Amino acid sequence: MEQQIHHSPPASFPGVLKRTAIRLARPDILFWTLPPLMLLLVIGTVTQKELGLYTAQHTYFSSFIVWLGPIPFPGGYTLMAVFFINLLMKFLLFSEWAWHKAGIVLTHFGVLLLILGGAFTAATEQEGSVVIGQGETTSVIEDYHQRELRILKDGVAVVRIPHQNISAGMSISIPDTNSSIKIDTYCFNCAISRRDETAQSGWTEPGKFMQLKATTPDAQNEQNLTGIEFTWDGQKYLTFDKFPKPPQRVIDGHSYKIVMGRAERELPFSITLTAFDRQLHPGTGMAKSYRSDITITDGATSWPATITMNEPLRYRGYTLYQSSFDLSGDKPFTVLSAVRNTGRAFPYIASLIMTIGLLLHLVIRLRRREPD
Q1: What share of the chain has pLDDT > 90, as a percent?
Q2: In what helix (H) or strand (E) does residue 133 lie, and over which residues does it extend?
Q3: What is the DSSP string of 311-356?
Q4: Residues 214, 216, 218, 221, CA torsion sign
Q5: What b/e readout covers 261-293, taking b as 16+ CB neighbours within 10 angstroms?
């Protein structure tokens, strides 16, 4: 005879906590959570055409509150948190902890682990690109979406300001100097036009002949050209994402550079591009395949590796994919997508647990139906 452990909240729970736990475990919470979740999914998917994938994802799914006009609506994080708490309370308080229910309990646990893994991935995943010229070495990842203003002292960043914290009129002091810059113009997506001759006074080149004006953000977030115009000790400058010659001055024997670009992160190892090769489809200019022969250097250890279109490199929690290339200059450049996902094992583990749970439940049901 099977022994069954209690499947109701312990009597020792304080009254309010007990009633709250029971209420959070009721199935009607899941029933009322699914409709707004489906509505949010539809709205977020439809608006991707106008807003772009990145903006739509962060507006609707990676948020706690979504404003539909003047009406607040729960975002993806809020709805998934309610969904998770409801399943967790049901699992902890009302699961039948008996052998004949072991498969259901295990499957339920797998679902919880899958949701938890998704939350962990959303909080910790990092994506970016690594751009390397042949013969060059780098350990820097450029973020796909986040921009920042950097002040470099002799090539080392001493100030980093996320682009969303920049506004016209703000002043930024340069460390270890009496110098500062004042932001005159900031635009997340800038249009470049010719500066009128009457407004060229005080400007250094190329800002003397070109100006930045804010324009509608592009739906493809990585296409937005973020830039600033600023005054630096009486002289006016401008710079923007991928600007080849950022403003630079020497102060007290040190070189200071003002850079607006993609946010940068350091890899725990360095990559050297030793060779890049591209194969074309016969009779066309379309790339059939391309590969990067690289050298990984981690401390005092180095070894060769190859990354192709279908064969990424995985090392120290990072996955490097062959993404693109640039052959327009004097030497080839490779573009590698770099992804760090510390929660990548969760889906595999959770799926395995759910599979075992369902199979176990099936076996137990079949055995219970067999005649004695």
Answers
A1: 56
A2: strand 126-133
A3: B-EEETTEEEEEEEEE-SSSS-EEEEEEEE-TTTHHHHHHHHHHHH
A4: positive
A5: bbbbeebeebbbbeebeeeeeeeeeeeeebbbb
What DSSP element (H or E) covers 138? Answer: strand 137-153
Structure tokens at 132: 């390397």
Cα separation of 111 and 172, whole Å?
Answer: 49
Separation of alpha carbons 210 and 195, rounded Å = 5
CA distance 292 to 276: 5
3-state secondary structure 180-223: EEEEEEEECCEEEEECCHHHCCCECCCCCCEEEEECCCCCCHHH
User: Per-residue pLDDT for 152 more than 90?
Assistant: yes
CA atoms within 13 A on the CB side of 304: 5
pTM for this entry: 0.69
User: Model confidence over 269-325: pLDDT tens digits?
Assistant: 999 999 998 887 787 767 778 889 999 999 899 999 999 988 999 999 899 999 888
Q: Is the pLDDT of residue 107 over 90?
A: yes
Q: Please report which confidence band the pLDDT of residue 370 belongs to, taking 50, 70 and 90 as the band edges.
A: low
Q: What amino acid is encoded at 59 in this protein?
A: T
Measured between alpha carbons, how far is 252 from 287 in angstroms, rounded to an integer? 50
The region of weakest confidence among 8-17, 244-253, 267-276 is 8-17
Q: How confident is the model at residue 84 (pLDDT cuts 50, 70, 90)?
A: very high
pLDDT for position 82 = 94
Q: What is the CA radius of gyration of the chain?
A: 28
Sheet holding 180-187, edge to edge: 171-173, 180-187, 227-232, 235-240
Determine whether 252 is exposed, middle or buried from the number of CB atoms within 10 Å of its CB (0-12, 13-18, 19+).
exposed
What whole-number distance in Å separates Cα of residue 281 and Cα of residue 288? 5
12: DSSP letter? T
For the chain, the residue count is: 372
